[in-house]
């Protein structure tokens, strides 16, 4: 199964970066399409979107200044199916994408995603003090997977920091 298309553009407010597409996302060709994934509910509940979007509308979020990509393009059943070589290649590709498109914020959807990109195993939630790509703010958010054991309110509160940052920056 081939990867799903990125939604990238210049001037993005936030580029959401996942591990890799689920099999459901690969089949539908839309980001965060697994019905057990809470991504779209988190965006709405945190104030990042004005309404609840569906995965089939992922391309519409470009109008809000939000883009999507993954550190690994190949859809898999789980992250345990991603090879070391895919992470190495994905890290280089992601670095190139961030360097070219320079979104205001690179939001890593999961500590593991940021750890793979930065090669830093110790990561806290929220904005990083120093960025790998100069001029791009890096934000580490919880995974939106239904397998995450954090309470939804805690997850939404972390994403709300992004909403507050972008609202403050827009004013």
From TrEMBL:
GO terms for biological process: base-excision repair, AP site formation. One of its GO terms (molecular function) is uracil DNA N-glycosylase activity. Residues 6-152 form the Uracil-DNA glycosylase-like domain. InterPro entries: MUG/TDG (IPR015637), Uracil-DNA_glycosylase-like (IPR005122), Uracil-DNA_glycosylase-like_sf (IPR036895). Keywords: DNA damage, DNA repair, Hydrolase. The keyword Protein transport does not apply. The keyword Membrane does not apply. PANTHER family: G/T AND G/U MISMATCH-SPECIFIC DNA GLYCOSYLASE, G_T MISMATCH-SPECIFIC THYMINE DNA GLYCOSYLASE. This is Mismatch-specific DNA-glycosylase. It comes from Paenibacillus anaericanus.
